[in-house]
Amino acid sequence: MSAVARTPGSRTGLRGRVASALSLLTLLGAGIVPAPAAASANSSASSSAALPLASTVWLCRPGVAANPCNQDLSGNPQRGTAGTPFTQRYLGSGHDVTLDATTITTAGAVSVEPFTAPAVPAMDCFSVYPTVDLTPNPLLQLGSLPPVANDTHLAVTLTQVARFSRLCRMFVPVYRQAPLLNLAVGVLTGTSTDYSTGAMDIANAWTDYWDHFNTDPVTHERRGVILLGHSQGSADLITLLQQRFAGGAALFPSGSSTSELGLHVVDYNVALGDLTQLAAQQSQRWTATR
Known about the structure:
Elements: E1 2-5, E2 23-28, E3 57-60, E4 87-89, E5 96-98, E6 101-105, E7 110-113, E8 123-128, H1 151-160, E9 168-174, H2 180-189, H3 196-212, E10 224-229, H4 232-244, H5 248-251, E11 262-267, H6 272-288
Parallel strand pairs: 2-11, 8-9, 8-10
Antiparallel strand pairs: 1-6, 3-9, 4-5, 6-7
Helix pairs in contact: 3-4
């Protein structure tokens, strides 16, 4: 028996079954941000002075030049050669890090678990990182001023979800989240925090992903997608689900209803093996429905 240090943490079982056309997995973390009520019935509406972004700011998007998550449009390594470790790259320093994990047995023996590079992963992951901005990003959240991707966003993405890139093409939008400063003020004053701008950015990033990147570059068919979120990221994904998936026919041109979609809301400490099983089952069902 061994205890394994992996990203993310300990293994838990999936709840329910994988359903037919599309699996949506919201990973809920034990973050400090509760899930707020739906920010708005319209993704372009916000109670702040912010307007929708002119275009999505992507931290990671397969095929984009110098993708920090190191995936080309098919999800294969964008950098490196066969036989070399798969790495992901910090923005500022350009420092490369491997996704290897450390295994520690109950007897204290330590070994390295090498990360297997992705090879045409069958699924997509749409990941929303937790509350990490200390101050507003951008500082003045007026109009359509875009947020700036930084290494704090990448560090938490690497820590929490990067190892899922063996199974998924990773799509990680940068969003104008409610910063830690605003949350602290809310706690001290007993006032509610406005999450609507971040929720608007995530909803519009989802639309961008669905309209432009969900179609497989080889088969030209729709791809299965898993939603990953933690803390404020989970809150914004819950808002997305409430706003966009209640009437599934409006989102899916095929007219699929939400009763046909597999929706799993599970503990954040889901093991990589669970996603491996989910991806394998979903890939079979996705192929069968083409």
